[in-house]
Amino acid sequence: EAGVTQFPSHSVIEKGQTVTLRCDPISGHDNLYWYRRVMGKEIKFLLHFVKESKQDESGMPNNRFLAERTGGTYSTLKVQPAELEDSGVYFCASSQARANTGELFFGEGSRLTVL
Amino acid sequence: GESVGLHLPTLSVQEGDNSIINCAYSNSASDYFIWYKQESGKGPQFIIDIRSNMDKRQGQRVTVLLNKTVKHLSLQIAATQPGDSAVYFCAEKFGGGSNYKLTFGKGTLLTVNP
């Protein structure tokens, strides 16, 4: 079974440009999460989808970030316009609805570098 | 507020020694905790978890201890190997049902010297 896949693995853009990150969760996982890790710091929660609905977007930094999950399958996270402080690794994770545990299955991340 | 922190940001051990990584958490209501391992260029990988109704759980070469009195979590790695070198994060679960998330600490960089 395929795990969580993310694309691109690395993106280098200039300040002011737009980047869209994509996440394909594990098939059948209704929960989809976006997290971000800025260099040397903790993994910070951004938002949580249950199917196509945003359950919790309390971690989204500002309105330059837009996440979507049309159809409840894959998700995109768009940053527009990108700023220097947006650099970091963006992780996507998924889990089954009402899982017995709280384990999240993570992708390998999309590294974003804003110059 | 929500916070999961670590006592030691870095830990260097000799191959074959045992490693102990510590974590303090703040949410007394959290019922589930996880340790993740993140290797360079990879995503966090599940190591071991523990529910709040337990105080110890063992896996293969790893043991997690939970002390709810002082809100402390630790990960013990026996006979540490070079392949164990990575950043280790503890995480606690907030919420329940389908509305839950994990909150992570800063991580501890474990370096295993051959």
Walk me through what this model shows.
The complex is a heterodimer of chains A (115) and B (114). With 115 residues, chain A is mainly β. Helix content of chain A is 0%, strand content 49%. Chain A contains no helices and 11 strands. In chain A, strands 2, 4, 5, 6, 9, 10 and 11 form a 7-stranded mixed β-sheet that branches. In chain A, strands 1-3-8-7 form a 4-stranded antiparallel β-sheet, with no helix packed on it. The termini of chain A are far apart. With 114 residues, chain B is mainly beta. Chain B starts with a strand and ends with a strand. Chain A binds chain B through residues 4, 30-31, 33, 35, 41-45, 48, 50, 55-56, 91, 93, 97-98, 101-109, and chain B through 4, 32, 34, 36, 41-46, 49, 89, 91, 93, 97-107.
Protein traits:
heterodimer; A: 115 residues; B: 114 residues; mainly beta; five-stranded antiparallel β-sheet; globular
Largest interface (CB within 8 Å) is between:
A-B, 27 and 25 residues
Mean pLDDT of chain A: 94
> Portion of residues in helices of chain A?
under 10%
Order of helices and strands of chain A: EEEEEEEEEEE
Shape of chain B: globular
Low-pLDDT runs of 5+ residues of chain A are none
Instruction: Return Rg of chain A in Å.
Output: 13 Å
Low-pLDDT segments, ≥5 res of chain B: none
Sheet of most strands of chain B: 6 strands, mixed
How much of the polypeptide of chain B forms β-strand, as a percent range? over 45%
Q: Label the structural class of chain A.
A: mainly beta
**Largest sheet of chain A at a glance?**
7 strands, mixed
Task: Give a quick precis of the structure.
Chain A is mostly beta strands.
List strands and helices in order, with pairings:
The complex is a heterodimer of chains A (115) and B (114).
Chain A: E1 5-7, E2 10-13, E3 19-24, E4 31-37, E5 43-50, E6 53-56, E7 65-68, E8 75-79, E9 88-95, E10 105-106, E11 110-114
Parallel strand pairs in A: 2-11
Antiparallel strand pairs in A: 1-3, 3-8, 4-5, 4-9, 5-6, 7-8, 9-10, 9-11
Chain B: E1 4-5, E2 10-14, E3 19-25, E4 32-38, E5 45-51, E6 56-58, E7 62-67, E8 72-77, E9 86-96, E10 99-104, E11 108-113
Parallel strand pairs in B: 2-11
Antiparallel strand pairs in B: 1-3, 3-8, 4-5, 4-9, 6-7, 7-8, 9-10, 9-11
